[in-house]
Every structure is written in structure tokens, then in C-alpha cells.
Design goal:
The protein is an alpha+beta fold. Helix content is 35%, strand content 12%. The chain is built from five helices and four strands, in the order αααβαββαβ. The chain is elongated. Bound molecules: adenosine-5'-diphosphate and magnesium ion. Adenosine-5'-diphosphate (ADP) binds next to loops.
Length: 114
């Protein structure tokens, strides 16, 4: 998808060259398995970028999984992200898949917004 097609598909409004440049970079990195860090002020539309990356990747038929990291209590984040085996700690009554495993061959969006 080119930049204009992405803007139409995802309902992105705006004509600033910097916006187009960011979308172009998203399309470029989507073709790779690189880890991407998306930064910017609150409300600037960052949340659509992991979706653009997923949809433009070879992983698009895999799981897209978004995790609101700020909503996970401290102390359980490792278990949420990486999963755990049954009996590995008090209360671990069952084996549990982590988000990395769930999103394997897909895209994992770790949203760090508080
Ligand atoms: N350029 C844009 N075009 C269309 N909608 C936008 C744009 N920028 C932001 N939004 C909308 O503004 C809201 C906030 O965006 P969001 O992605 O949650 O911001 P962020 O994650 O950067 O804090 C969302 O509803 C989003 O769709
Ligand atoms: Mg956000």
C-alpha cells in the first residue's frame, strides 16, 4: 500500500509532510521483522501505526494483539507477557500462554501509555 492508500484505509486525516513521512516509514518497516518504537505526544494518533505495520506485513494473517501495559499490575507483567507453567508460583493453577506466544507470527503492540 502506498501512503495515500494507507490514509484512506485507516481514515487518517492530514496533509502535513511529516505525517506522510511517518506513514511511509511505517510501510517500509512493515516489510521487516524489526521491532518498532513509536513515540509522540498524547492524542497524535500513534495507535493506528501498529495496525498499519501489521496490515502491511507478511504477518497480517497472524494475530494482531495490543496490550495496555499501564493496566497490568506490577509483579504480574512478566507472567502476562511471557506466560507461565502450571505450579510455577502460588495461584498458577494452570499453564498460561504469554502475549508473545499468542502474537507469534503476528504483531504484538505493547502500548506503554499510562
Ligand atoms: N491524523 C489523524 N487522522 C484521523 N484521526 C486521528 C488523527 N490523529 C489522531 N486521530 C484520532 O485521535 C484519537 C486519539 O488518537 P490515539 O491514536 O489514541 O493517540 P495516541 O495513541 O497518540 O495518544 C483517535 O480517535 C484517533 O483516531
Ligand atoms: Mg495511544
Amino acid at each position: 500500500m502506498d501512503v495515500q492508500a494507507i490514509k484512506r484505509t485507516f481514515g487518517i486525516i492530514g496533509t502535513d509532510p511529516e505525517l506522510d513521512r511517518a506513514i511511509g516509514i511505517a510501510a517500509q518497516v512493515a516489510a521487516t521483522d524489526l521491532t518498532v518504537l513509536i513515540t509522540g505526544e498524547s492524542g497524535t494518533g500513534k495507535d493506528v501505526f501498529p495496525k498499519i505495520i501489521h496490515q502491511n506485513s507478511t504477518r497480517k494473517h497472524g494475530q494482531y494483539f495490543a496490550v495496555n501495559c499501564g493496566a497490568i499490575p506490577e509483579g504480574t507483567i512478566d507472567s502476562e507477557l511471557f506466560g507461565h507453567e502450571k505450579g510455577s508460583f502460588t495461584g498458577a493453577v494452570n499453564e498460561r500462554k504469554g502475549y508473545f506466544e499468542i502474537a507469534d507470527k503476528g504483531t504484538l503492540f505493547l502500548d506503554a501509555t499510562k
